Amino acid sequence: MNWDRIEGNWKQLKGKIKEQWGDLTDDDIDRIGGKKDQLAGRLQETYGIGKDEAERQIDRWAGSYNENDLRDNDLRASDTRRSSM
């Protein structure tokens, strides 16, 4: 998936990020704010891995999502908003 899409939907993907990298805190994820380089840096610090490995993990994770995943998240969010009205 295009990283711009991930960055734009960062908050919606927060749960998926926590599934992938469970040692990242909510504060970490909020501070990263969808910035790929900041995510790589945090992964390096948290997991003691090198820059290349962090970027590989991010690219593999990002590649596992497609537009339908975000669309499904958007639909669930709008259904939740409608049902609470």
Features of this protein?
globular; 85 residues; mainly alpha; 0% strand
Question: Which structural class fits the helix and strand makeup?
Answer: mainly alpha
The chain-level mean pLDDT equals 86
Distance between the termini: 33 Å
In percent, how helical is the residue content? over 70%
Taking all Cα atoms into account, the compactness measure Rg is: 14 Å
Count of discrete alpha- or pi-helical segments spanning 4 or more residues: 6
Number of strands: 0
Low-confidence stretches: 78-82
Helix-strand sequence: HHHHHH
Choose one word for the global shape.
Answer: globular
Main sheet properties: none
Strand content: under 5%
Explain what this protein looks like in three dimensions.
With 85 residues, the chain is mainly alpha-helical. Helix content is 73%, strand content 0%. The radius of gyration is 14 Å and the shape is globular.
Q: In summary, what is this structure?
A:
By secondary structure, the protein is an all-alpha fold.
What's the arrangement of secondary structure elements?
Elements: H1 3-8, H2 14-20, H3 26-32, H4 36-47, H5 51-63, H6 67-83
Helix pairs in contact: 4-5
